Amino acid sequence: MSVPAAAFGPGILIVTRTDVSPSPAVNIGYAQELTLDFAGSTKQLYGQNQYPLVAARSTIKVSGKIKAATLSGIAANNVFFGGAFASSGFSWTIGEQGTVAGASDQYQTSGHATFDADLGVNYAGSGLPLQRVASITKQGQHVEAAGVYTFHASDSGTSISVTYTTTALPAGGQSLTLANQPIGTTPTFQLDYYTNLNQPGAEPYALRLFSCVASKLSMPFKLEDFMMPEFDFDVFANASGNIFELVTPQIA
Fold first, then answer.
1. Which domain holds residue 125?
2. What's the pLDDT score for residue 2?
3. What burial letters (b/e) apply to 203-239, b meaning 16+ CB within 10 Å?
4. Are residues 71 and 180 in the same domain?
5. pLDDT digits (tens, 9 = 90+) for 123-137
6. What is the pLDDT of residues 20-57, one digit of tens each?
7. Can you tell me the distance from the alpha carbon of 153 to that of 38, in angstroms, rounded to the nearest whole number?
8. Please, what's the largest Cα pairwise distance for the chain?
9. Under 8 Å between Cβ of 31 and 75
């Protein structure tokens, strides 16, 4: 028995930047959803009767939405930001535990050699924050210089929790610094879609949208849920005047 042509599930989505060369291509990140909308404007010509004599279609807008299960920096950059990655950046150290030294009233962070920024000090016991100041005048204050923290003498011997960043990027990591670009700067991308119903005799269904531009990137961080990036985009004609190519497995 032949399997009817059917598409099930979100399929595979690959996005390729088309405004730079070489063109980086990447899986959007375990696609959750792909929605495409083709919306045309129509105009009716009426005479003396109730129904139109003729109808014609003018412009057509093609828009889409992608929801991904995981976050890919390359995909977000290909689709929306259009920047350039660097091998430098910063990484977090959260709640490093230490003790204010009795002799110097200081604490030297383990990441002082590549220290980047102070993100706060708390008392380890109570969790209450200390105040960063330019000059210490009382207990509960601290100053920081190159990853070395100095405290009031009253805090000597106190256990503390320090959060800070360093310039030591995690192994294999990269960073994206986005500059404010002139209006009209627009990264473009090609979208390739593939799906195959997992049944004996089923055949693949593939679609290529030649030129797309993103209008929105949403990253909803929620309590007790995963963050799933959402991309809204519009489709337009490429240099050859083509919009898409659709490959169907059957003549149906």
1. 91-166
2. 59
3. eebbbbbbbbbbeeeeeeeeeeeeebbebbbebeeee
4. yes
5. 999 999 999 999 999
6. 988 889 998 788 999 999 999 999 999 999 999 999 99
7. 70
8. 100
9. no
pLDDT, residue 103, reads 86
- The pLDDT tens digits of the residues spanning 113-171 come to 999 999 999 999 999 999 999 999 999 999 999 999 999 999 999 999 999 999 988 87
The answer to whether 151 and 135 are in contact (CB under 8 A) is: no
Residues 96 and 127 in one domain: yes
In a domain, 198, yes or no: yes
Residue 155 in tokens: 């805090």
Neighbours of 143 (CB within 10 A): 15
80 shares its domain with 18 = yes
Question: Where a domain ends, among 114, 131, 166?
Answer: 166
The residues facing 192 across adjacent strands are 14, 208
Question: Same domain, yes or no, for 99 and 77?
Answer: no
* Cα atoms in the 13 Å half-sphere on the side-chain side of 139: 8
The pTM of the full predicted model, rounded to 2 decimals, is: 0.83
Say if residue 66 is exposed, middle or buried (CB neighbours under 10 Å; 0-12, 13-18, 19+): buried
